[in-house]
Design brief:
Elements (H helix, E strand, L loop, with lengths): L25 H7 L4 H14 L5 H8 L7 H16 L14 E7 L4 E8 L2 E8 L4 E4 L1
Antiparallel strand pairs: 1-2, 2-3, 3-4
Helix pairs in contact: 2-3, 2-4
Length: about 140
């Protein structure tokens, strides 16, 4: 996979993975034993959790077929690798001293937004009036 053509997306948007794609004969199941599908899924699952959340959805879908994967599952798993190869520059960077401020917004109406500010151990509710741009903390 070192010299593979990179993929633009982690999953083919027209592909609908299902259990019907799994082998339905003992010969088909035996043939799939030669493909390291479960090992590949374990490795990309680690990537999805640790550094690549952009592949988490497709890895979750592919992990449902670890017991009985088919060739379509195998090709989609290899596509994840091709996507990772094409986007090797994308990754999480964990900072030693990250900022301790988390801000979330939720719209409660068309004229008011509620902002929750979490800093260290406090959680304050800030109501933002969009018309006057005034913020009040509660």
């Amino acid at each position: 996979m070192v010299d593979c053509d990179p993929a633009q997306t982690p999953m083919n948007e027209n592909m609908k993975l299902s259990a019907r794609m799994s082998p339905d004969t003992p010969q088909g199941a035996l043939a799939m034993k030669f493909y390291p599908y479960s090992e590949l899924i374990r490795k990309v699952l680690y990537l999805a959790v640790a550094t690549r959340p952009d592949i988490a959805y497709v890895v979750d879908l592919l992990s449902r077929f670890v017991e009985s994967p088919g060739m379509n599952h195998w090709h989609e798993a290899k596509r994840v690798l091709r996507y990772c190869r094409g986007t090797i520059h994308m990754r999480f960077v964990y900072l030693r001293n990250p900022p301790r401020l988390l801000t979330t917004f939720s719209a409660t109406s068309t004229t008011e937004a509620v902002q929750f500010v979490v800093d260290d151990v406090r959680c304050r509710k800030a109501v933002v009036d969009e018309e006057s741009s005034a913020t009040t903390f509660r």
